[in-house]
Specification:
This protein is α/β, with parallel strands linked by helices and 416 residues long. The chain has helices at 22-31, 48-59, 84-87, 97-104, 123-131, 162-172, 188-199, 231-244, 259-267, 305-312, 331-338, 368-380, 391-394, 400-406, and strands at 3-7, 13-17, 38-42, 63-65, 70-73, 81-82, 106-110, 135-139, 142-146, 154-156, 178-182, 203-205, 211-215, 224-226, 247-251, 271-274, 278-282, 292-293, 318-322, 342-346, 349-353, 362-364, 384-388, 410-414. The strands form six sheets. Strands 22-23-1-24 form a four-stranded mixed beta sheet. Strands 2-15-17-16 form a four-stranded mixed beta sheet. A four-stranded mixed beta sheet has the order 4-5-3-14, covered by helices on one side. β4 (63-65) and β5 form a beta hairpin. Bound molecules: ligand EPZ. Ligand EPZ binds next to α1, α5, α6 and α12. Ligand EPZ is lined by residues 22-23, 26, 92, 118, 120-125, 159, 161-164, 185, 302-303, 325-326, 368-369, 396.
Length: 416
């Protein structure tokens, strides 16, 4: 298996262009199941997770052509089963459940099972689908759902689940009557998906707020749309500039999606200039510790928690980082401690005392965002860091080592 080797100490300088958002592309590609005909989706990132959902959609009979800009045609659906071997590699496969039931009246999707960061149940997806009139049973580790035609309903999500909101919003577009999603998630990726669905003829209002209204229609038509820039990738590069004391311009991003992070990094002492579709981040001098609490959007994103922890590990002072979204998202802590970080976990919080220097070490990636945080730590550390299990990082970052080395980072991938 490949490894990534980093020699720390270089200040990052220059421009980096952000790729399309993984967490927008996945539901948008799943939405193609709702219509017959050729959709065109632009700015699809080249990631392992995208390859996985392409395989999954192909297994359902969907035709997909191209790279970057994809043409997707679900005119003929030959299967409504998402198999365990595909779903277990990517939990977001659950996003085919709602569209399949809405389009063909049935679906059999493997339960995703947990992952490193938590149990990650899909009970809220199932409960909401039942509220739309689907008959849902759990059998042999699969969710089996059937409905001649879904019926609009008022649905309240106990937790504002991102893919739960996406799954049910897609299903409700073809339901009979009106659906209200209350305590809906507000992430920009949901707004992007709603725009695509509206382009297909769906009648949706309120996406981006916590109440989304969907008026069901008989049928949808193909659409052409673009995936928004990846705010988590952009945030990761902002932090990379800070942790190396560099000066980086981040191009092709949407700064409005990064308010919480930008506020925190400015509190920590970074200079961040905001333009319409770019950011400039300078990290000069040592940074101050700040406290962080992850929350659903527009709060501080859980997907940037590990990355800002790497920054706080070398900031001046003490930072309390509280993870409220997932129950086990501190796997990166033990690896950072091996690099000399001073971190103590107390329940849902990690107490981070900044140290003057981290030291390079062999470390192991456990999940996508933890991998990114260890790369950031390696860029700032004295000496060499070797990151193994890099397949985690390839799921969500397009050629991260190439982008970082183009900014002057001493980082390379070696075949393992
Ligand atoms: C999405 O996951 C993202 N993935 C995650 O990004 C992100 O961390 C997460 O939202 C939170 O922002 C995609 O969009 C593909 P949730 P999702 O449902 O939808 C609980 C990354 O690194 N919950 O909003 O699975 C759940 O356990 C990934 O790119 C239930 O209890 O997250 C969690 O504690 C990691 N029952 C909380 O809600 C349910 O039915 C939020 O989860 C659903 C969720």
């Amino acid at each position: 298996m490949d490894k990534i080797v980093i020699v720390g100490g270089e200040r990052l300088r220059g421009d980096v262009r952000i790729s399309g958002a993984k967490n927008a592309a996945l539901p948008i590609l799943a939405s193609a199941l709702l219509v017959g005909g050729w959709n065109t989706f632009h700015n699809i990132p080249d990631l392992v997770d995208i390859k996985t959902i392409r395989k999954l959609l192909n297994s359902l009979g969907v035709e997909i052509e191209g790279q970057g800009t994809l043409r997707v045609n679900a005119s003929v659906i030959t299967s409504c089963e998402a198999s365990y071997d595909l779903v277990r590699t990517m939990r977001a496969s659950i996003l085919v459940l709602g569209p399949l039931v809405a389009r063909v009246g049935e679906a059999r999707v493997s339960l995703p099972g947990g992952c490193a960061i938590g149990a990650r149940p899909v009970n809220l997806h199932i409960k909401a689908l039942q509220a739309l009139g689907a008959e849902v049973t759990l059998k042999d580790g699969y969710v089996e759902a059937k409905a001649a035609r879904l019926k609009g309903a008022e649905i309240y999500f106990d937790i504002s689940t991102v893919t739960g909101t996406e799954n049910i919003m897609m299903a409700a577009t073809l339901a009979e009557g009106k659906t209200l999603l209350k305590n809906a998630a507000r992430e920009p990726e949901i707004v992007n998906l709603a725009e695509v669905l509206i382009g297909m003829g769906a009648r949706i209002s309120g996406a981006g707020s916590d109440v989304i209204t969907i008026e069901g229609v008989e049928r949808l038509h193909p659409a052409e749309a673009a995936v928004i820039p990846d705010r988590i990738e952009a945030g990761t590069f902002l932090i990379a500039a800070g942790i190396t004391g560099g000066d980086v311009r981040i191009l092709g991003c949407n700064p409005l999606h990064l308010d919480a992070l930008i506020a925190k990094l400015r509190d920590a002492g970074m200079r961040i200039d905001v333009a319409e579709d770019s950011l400039r981040a300078a990290g000069g001098g040592s940074l101050r510790s700040v406290d962080v609490k992850t929350l659903p959007y527009p709060g501080f994103p859980t997907d940037l928690q590990a990355q800002i922890m790497a920054l706080m590990a070398v900031a001046k002072g003490r930072s309390v980082i509280t993870e409220t979204v997932f129950e086990n998202r501190f796997m990166h802590v033990s690896e950072m401690i091996r690099m000399g970080a001073d971190i103590v976990i107390q329940g849902k919080s990690a107490l981070v005392r900044g140290v003057s220097k981290l030291h390079g070490a062999p470390v192991m990636a456990t999940d996508l965002r933890a991998s990114a945080s260890l790369i950031l730590a390696g860029l700032a550390a004295e000496g060499t860091t070797v990151l193994s299990r890099v397949y985690h990082i390839d799921r969500g970052y397009q050629q991260i080592e190439k982008k970082l080395s183009a900014l002057g980072g001493d980082i390379r991938r070696v075949a393992g």
